[in-house]
Amino acid sequence: MNGSQSTALLRLSDKDYEFIRKLIYNETRINLGEGKRELVSARVGKRLRATGCPSYEDYCEALRKNPSSNEFYNLIDAISTNHTFFFREINHFNFLEQVVLPQFSSGKLGNTSKLNIWSCACSTGEEPYSVAISLAEYFQKFPQHDWQIDCSDISTRVLKFASDAVYDIDKLKQVKPELARKYFQKGERQMEGYCRVRPELAKKIAFRRINLFEASFPWKSKFQLIICRNVMIYFDRKTQEELVTRLSKHLVPGGYLFIGHAESLAGITHPYNTIKPAIYQLPE
Length: 284
Ligand SMILES: C[S@@+](CC[C@H](N)C(=O)[O-])C[C@H]1O[C@@H](n2cnc3c(N)ncnc32)[C@H](O)[C@@H]1O
What we know:
By secondary structure, this protein is an alpha/beta fold.
């Protein structure tokens, strides 16, 4: 094959880009505009290499023939952006410790001794483990209370990473040293350079795959707090509206919704009161 042939084969045509864009949108509602074309090309290119598929055209043809194949889920994994870090957007953690947790322990967020939180686009787990550290610290003074964090994401790859709970030691730079020592074990020998979340903390957190647009969510009880950060940014306004309305059905009255600080519910119809930037509360 000469250079120009291989370039032609490895070019994502308009037709194939449109096909991938629609496929991804229909399943995940991630809105890939024209500006994402190069990124999609590069990420699908990785799938071509992983599957040994000779061209974008062949890859798309295989997906057209079998849209519910495993490869479709690998494609979603490849396309979704999973950037996250410990204690990201610290204002949320301050509000959690100063407002949400005291309200819960004084019985103002439902008459229950168990606090339930859902981190609904948890990526590789840094977000829920950071929340877990805040809760573990706070509830030392309130041993009569129990808590759990349910976590979900559409990507099975990030969920596997999150439940393994092993991180590069450099990732702990965002964690206060005394908390890092208390809640992580340092790896030794072949695990040198890595750390693992201590099992006592990890056991309070459950991970499962949930697509935010599946017909119904599996929850039997409601949450006092839903954390849905830095995922809505990939959705169009109509989809954001649909999502935050759906999430509100899974909150107790007075329950909170945290969204990313780069996101906003301004200009969309929703049932929440605005408390602070990126913090919303369902009326009691
Ligand atoms: C940028 S990460 C955000 C991680 C974390 N919430 C934070 O703020 O640091 C966005 C995550 O949303 C997930 N995601 C994208 N579309 C989704 C969908 N339709 N349902 C569930 N998760 C989705 C991606 O897989 C990705 O892990």
